[in-house]
Design goal:
This is Pilus assembly protein. Keywords: Membrane, Transmembrane, Transmembrane helix. It is a single chain. By secondary structure, the chain is mainly α. It has one domain. It is 82% helix and 0% strand. The radius of gyration is 29 Å and the shape is rod-shaped. The termini are far apart.
């Protein structure tokens, strides 16, 4: 096989381009997940604190009256 043929075959091969596309899409999904997590974090923390406060107020009876 001639060096020029190898160069043309390498240039026309698209397998690597598909891999790069998947890497970019995966990175975008990870970034989106991190963005959503940071946006929701404060609301979840607030609800968690409210639940903890309510649960700490409740008392469990351990005897039968």
């Amino acid at each position: 096989m001639k060096p020029l043929d190898l160069l043309n075959r390498f240039r026309n091969d698209e397998n690597g381009a598909v891999t790069v596309d998947w890497v970019v899409l995966t990175a975008a999904l990870v970034g989106l997940g991190i963005a959503v997590l940071s946006a929701v974090e404060t609301g979840v923390e607030s609800v968690t604190n409210e639940i903890t406060t309510e649960l700490s107020r409740d008392r469990v009876k351990t005897t039968f009256d």
